[in-house]
Design brief:
alpha+beta, Immunoglobulin-like, 2 domains, 3-stranded antiparallel beta sheet, 3 helices, elongated
């Protein structure tokens, strides 16, 4: 008897479990199964599916909290920048005071070897939206791979954030996990360190 192969990648496991729980009722008589056994196997499939989507839900919650944090920091920074600008117009302000308070601007040296962009991925309707900051480069090269594959593919060179695209998935009713990676680009040359986001779910849960 050939061995039973249950997929190891989450994309394939989602498809496998969804298909299995749909098909098993058709073969109850042929497999001499009891009602309890069928219900049990369907529940196992649902455990597979639920466990995978729970991770996605937690990531969505994390992204929401992260967005709130980023907005708070941005708002408070704006308040501080205005107040610090006022401090610098005070008669008693000196560079020594600014150094002590850490409010003197120091020029950063751009290093192509250590450059790293920022990257975030979200859904905008039916499109995938990739937000990034160029931080001194002309653009970024965005790569993707499906979790079921080890191969990275160039998605596009983006020069304006957000970059949006419609993902091609095999079955819209079977979500896929994608990984994204990006490098900075100057004069058509990739520079710096890669930044990557893994396990981004594309598609809708199967009911």
């Amino acid at each position: 008897m050939a061995g039973t192969i249950i997929p190891s990648s989450n994309n394939e496991l989602l498809a496998w479990a969804t298909n299995y729980k749909t098909k098993i009722p058709e073969f109850v008589a042929l497999l001499n199964m009891t009602t309890e056994q069928v219900a049990e196997e369907i529940s196992w499939c649902n455990e597979f599916i639920t466990s995978i989507f729970e991770v996605t839900a937690q990531k969505s919650t994390y992204k929401s909290i992260l967005s709130k944090r980023n907005n708070t920091i941005k708002q408070v920074k704006n308040k501080f920048q205005k107040r610090i600008a006022q401090h610098k117009t005070s008669a008693g302000y000196t560079k020594a005071v600014g150094d002590a308070m850490g409010i003197v601007v120091s020029k950063k040296v751009f290093d192509e070897n250590t450059y790293k962009t920022s990257l975030s991925v979200s859904m905008n309707g039916n499109k995938v939206a990739i937000r990034f900051r160029k931080l001194g480069v002309q653009g970024i090269n965005i790569y993707y791979r499906k979790e079921s594959s080890d191969a990275w593919h160039l998605l596009s060179r983006a020069t304006k954030s957000p970059f949006e695209f419609t993902a091609k998935i095999e079955n819209p009713r079977q979500p896929e996990l994608w990984d994204f990676m990006a490098f900075g680009v100057i004069n058509d040359k990739e520079i710096g360190l890669a930044i990557d986001i893994t396990d981004f779910m594309i598609g809708s849960p199967v009911g």
